[in-house]
Amino acid sequence: MARPRSEDKRNAILDAAIEEFAARGVWSTPTAAISRTAGVAEGTLFTYFASKDVLVNELYRALKVELADAMMSTYPAKASSREKFAHVWMQYLQWAMAHPLKCKVMGQLRVSDRITTETREAGSAPFAELLREGEECVRRKVFVDQPVHFIGAMFNGLAEATMAALAEPDGSGTDYAAAGFDVFWRGVARP
Amino acid sequence: MARPRSEDKRNAILDAAIEEFAARGVWSTPTAAISRTAGVAEGTLFTYFASKDVLVNELYRALKVELADAMMSTYPAKASSREKFAHVWMQYLQWAMAHPLKCKVMGQLRVSDRITTETREAGSAPFAELLREGEECVRRKVFVDQPVHFIGAMFNGLAEATMAALAEPDGSGTDYAAAGFDVFWRGVARP
Amino acid sequence: MARPRSEDKRNAILDAAIEEFAARGVWSTPTAAISRTAGVAEGTLFTYFASKDVLVNELYRALKVELADAMMSTYPAKASSREKFAHVWMQYLQWAMAHPLKCKVMGQLRVSDRITTETREAGSAPFAELLREGEECVRRKVFVDQPVHFIGAMFNGLAEATMAALAEPDGSGTDYAAAGFDVFWRGVARP
Amino acid sequence: MARPRSEDKRNAILDAAIEEFAARGVWSTPTAAISRTAGVAEGTLFTYFASKDVLVNELYRALKVELADAMMSTYPAKASSREKFAHVWMQYLQWAMAHPLKCKVMGQLRVSDRITTETREAGSAPFAELLREGEECVRRKVFVDQPVHFIGAMFNGLAEATMAALAEPDGSGTDYAAAGFDVFWRGVARP
DNA sequence: CATGAATGAGGATTCATTCAT
DNA sequence: GATGAATGAATCCTCATTCAT
């Protein structure tokens, strides 16, 4: 199938999907709701995405790419390791705070069975640079002696927890973002 | 008088739900699949759970209760703080490893819109004891000066990440469970 | 099947059926609603009535019998024809006003396909006396020269219309009952 | 652009509904039977009528409109009052005889709880002209001194009874239609 | 290509009836 | 006989996808 005409329309559909998925849950949202919100006809959705599964996978990939861009595009290649991770951490949280719907949808998609392994791999590709830095840190004994993917998982888990804390409406004013990163760094840095 | 409602049947339905939800995803499993797996008629499911939503909420609560029991029933009330948290951490991970399906389903339910606030609250009730210990640690300056719910979130986030790492089939033999706890403790303990 | 034990229970079921049918419509009322209102178990209903259809037919018959009793038990066998019909007319309307639910249900059952011809015939049996008087009136040229069943239909149609008028909440105070009978009598009496 | 919604298909569904409702009763006919008879897919019914309730209400309204058209479209505005009512009466009965199924269905719908007040009002709107004539007759002392709606109810009640008599298969050859109107007129005309 | 009506398999639930207790 | 849990066919409706316009 040739590339469909309008990139705008494709994006409108993806945006509508985010909005609807966030509001009603991924598997409770009919494609008709998405097309309506996107302002296109029901059938049009299927000229841009062959099926709902495809749409969902592409959306996941798109969100990952956007997040990766937010996190990595200003990556301070020359800073210290700590600064590199801190920078990425902060970009992550800022993006998450700026895009709560996208964040919520990513959370739902992450645990979904309909996201293929291929999509998942594509989604983590842009973070290769960060992985390399992690490996370096392990090698240089800056980090504890654990596989990078494990350390990456810690990073993610803590970031998500921090995000959730930031999202709470208790407004205690605490700077969870910085606190969260401290937990991460103290946790994985070799004592 | 009359057949009494059977706890066995209720459990069979919940077990079947776990099995099917893990295999096909919560919102892709028809109630008919659950009843078939449970060995009851389609209608019987609805004498035990008024609707699929109710079933899903009760299942979430039941899983939480089971997990809480695994984590807290052998809580070492007289041990040191570190030992208390370590114990709970290990019980958590052991339960998770022993019940991967339940774990997977909990992961899906946690992000679901259909789980009510009430259910969520009921699910976290059994961990009150742990919260208290956390507060104590903050007060005694064992932990960094952050709200307990934030520290609890860190605990959870790291535990989940560790679980995921344990579930990976790379079988590197690394003891992720212990390593994960070390990250947690170093992270939240006052340096 | 032997006569079931308790006549009371049978009546409770019929009464409950009237109440529920009036409130929710005959075919929107589950048998379970009837048994609940009657204060008996779901299954018990079926020891008194073999099926819902049977229940509905017996109810129709019972209502007809009750109405017939109200109309005919004080039938003034020695009065003039006009007085006879007027008496029956008034009894009819009084019964209808006194039992609006029963009346409503009869209205629904009358047009229902599930009422058998046999039931309908049984329902009109108690009015034989009145039919005879009608025939007499035709023969004696008190009524216009039409078949009695046609005149009976007029009687019924006008009585129902009068009932509906009485049920309206406009409360104009008009004596519809008497006015309705006058319309009937003028209409069918030979001028 | 796109297939336009077809009035034909809508009518086919309404016609099928009449046929099936007449044969099996309104609440015993599955929507699937209607769509099959109409020659459309099960789902198509719901693009024309949002629910069975909506279909039933629209059907009632459509039947009323059709009947009103039959009765009122040739209304002899310049004839005498008696002729006006006689005309409408005859049109009513002719329509009823010509469309026994529609008539039967209207009878069932009239007593149904699912017909909304709004639908009922819309259904009686086209008869305003006749109501006015009735009021005129009361004012000019052609009719007895009763509210028009009461006289209207008599008209209806008698017409229905006459219809039922006409529908009986005794084929006595009696001209019930004319006889019925005579009953009406004698009944309501001031003696 | 865009549109939205048409399709029909699938799904949650209901409910008359049966039957174990 | 009474009870109410168990049954599963039947029902209304949804929705991903197709296709005529």
Describe the structure.
4 copies of one chain form a homotetramer. Helix content of chain A is 70%, strand content 0%. By secondary structure, chain A is an all-alpha fold. Chain A folds into 2 domains: 1-50, Arc Repressor Mutant, subunit A, CATH 1.10.10; 52-188, Tetracycline Repressor, domain 2, CATH 1.10.357. The mean pLDDT of chain A is 92. Chains C and D meet through α9 and α10 of C and α9 and α10 of D.
Q: Secondary-structure map with pairings?
A:
The structure is a homotetramer of 191-residue chains.
Chain A: H1 7-24, H2 31-38, H3 45-48, H4 52-72, H5 81-98, H6 100-110, H7 117-124, H8 128-139, H9 148-167, H10 176-188
Chain B binds a DNA duplex (21 and 21 nucleotides) through residues 1-6, 9, 30-32, 40-44, 46-47, 51-52.
**Helix fraction of chain A?**
55-70%
In terms of per-residue confidence, which ranges of chain A show pLDDT below 50 for 5 or more consecutive residues?
none
Query: In this structure, how is the largest beta sheet of chain A organized?
Result: none
Count of extended strands of chain A: 0
Domains of chain A (count):
2
Taken in chain order, the helices and strands of chain A follow as: HHHHHHHHHH
Largest interface: C-D, 40 and 40 residues
Instruction: Quickly count the helices of chain A.
Output: 10
The mean pLDDT of chain A is: 92
Strand portion of chain A: under 5%
- Termini Cα gap of chain A: 56 Å
Structural class by sheet pairing and helices of chain A: mainly alpha
Instruction: Please tell me what the overall shape of chain A is.
Output: elongated
